[in-house]
Amino acid sequence: MARQSLNRAIFFGGSVDPRDLRLITAGDSDTVRVWSDPRTVLYKLRVVDGPTYALDVDRRGEWIVTAGAGGRARVWQLSRPFAPRFQTNPPHHAPIRDAQITQDGTRMVTTDDSGQIRLWTFPNAVLIDSVDTGLASAPKLEFSVPSGAVLSVYLSDGRLQLYDGRNLRLYRERQISDAGGFSLDLAPDGRRSALGDGNGVITIARAGQCIPSLESPVCFGGYKIWRNTRPDTSGVRLLRVYGYGDSTWSFLADARSFSDPDSIIDRTQPPVDDPEAIPEDIVIAGPHDGVPYFYSITRFDRHFLNGSIFDVYPRSIMESFYKDPGNTEPTAIIPRPTGRAELPLLGEVIVVPNPYERGTVPWDAVGGAHVEFRNLPPVAKIAIHTVAGDQVRVLHHDEDEYGVTRSAESWDLRNGSGDEVAAGIYVYQVTTPSGEVIQGYFAVIH
């Protein structure tokens, strides 16, 4: 058999056993090989539109993603390696050059020669969102650990971009090199990136750190932002931690900005400069128009004492509630809607029927129990929550399987686990790729 060039070779990432030599290789043929060691082939995966340029394996060593010249990523289950279990749709319009899986195995990202980035669920490969970088070349990609909350993107023109790893919202951008971006590697602690350019220069981008020790027992940790509907600590919610290790803040000139939008959004409770901490996924209801809220910003220092590290607050949450100049009591901030001069893209979105009452809707006998979101734009995301802020289901509205644009999307009144939802009031939020958002309510009656 003629030798072929090797495009990619990776070890199984989750193993800590030095005797574990399992690896995956891909070359110019249509075959990807899985090896138990460098001499023994376990499986051969046939990729119909090879060659394969991108490979990754999940941390548990159960799933493999392959992608390449055909513009489609395929997900293989090693216990059933004879055909891919899932594949991305629609395919990229250019060859895929990189594919990465988050360490927690919930999402993957792909990028192609046209510079497009797409974010997918994993392993079932449902499209979440996409971004065009505007450059006709594939960027370098790295997810942060452990949950992929931040996606680092190093572009061919030398810019480093940081995206939300859950929805591809751009956080920050910085020019690293004028000689182009050629390589990117993220340190395991997520605080340092090694970026290589066309002149052979490697830049270490540091997020900073605050790690107190016996020799230096106190350091500045950062700030925490809290919110409550009354000016006390009972029921106060931690919205955000801004520390040296957090790169997800936006810049306004030399200042950092924080937005608490009038919506229900997914947020990640970030660790405070602790490489061992795992972010806690939480859902917090955003502020609602006309409701007064009190915000507190507390500085915290990190102290080392008797082998442990503690956060110490120079001023308490109560002392740090915002006060208007000259006031001695905390000042409430009341969000209010802004007026619009034209009808928004989502101005006519409705839910039919509203309320939905079981047994009274004629179409239930034909299509099963469901409601419809109507007057939708061609592409939109529909997030459904309880009034308490718990996420029930997310629907992705797009063209149908035949490429036909639709203005309606149905929901079968089941949650993400497939269980029928309870009777009650539900909140829906419709978001367009351009960032327009509308929110409404509907009722379900059993």
Automatic annotation (TrEMBL):
Coiled coil: none
InterPro entries: WD40/YVTN_repeat-like_dom_sf (IPR015943), WD40_repeat_dom_sf (IPR036322), WD40_rpt (IPR001680)
Signal peptide as annotated in the record: none
A Pfam family of this chain: WD40
Protein origin, superkingdom: Bacteria
Protein name listed in UniProt: Uncharacterized protein
Organism: Eiseniibacteriota bacterium
